[in-house]
Write a structure and sequence with these properties.
By secondary structure, the chain is mainly alpha-helical. Helices cover about 45% and strands about 0% of the residues. Helix 1 runs parallel beside helix 2. It starts with a helix and ends with a helix.
């Protein structure tokens, strides 16, 4: 699922995070808060974070 910035900010606020960061930094903060590796857009053709809600978004955006 691809989230827009409004949805990402709402998710961050729901986790008690400040939502005034750049998109990639905010997503990495959410990843950390959810117990995942803060690795948004750093994977090279493979991602082992199968429970991360940003996994498909990350792999798709990395190559843009």
């Amino acid at each position: 699922m691809v989230m827009n910035m409004t949805e990402i900010r709402a998710k961050a606020k729901g986790l008690g995070l400040k939502a005034n960061m750049k998109k990639d930094d905010l997503i990495r903060a959410i990843q950390t808060a959810e117990g995942n590796t803060p690795c948004f857009k750093t994977a090279i053709d493979y991602c082992d974070q199968t429970e991360c809600c940003f996994r498909s978004m990350c792999l798709n955006e990395k190559h843009k």
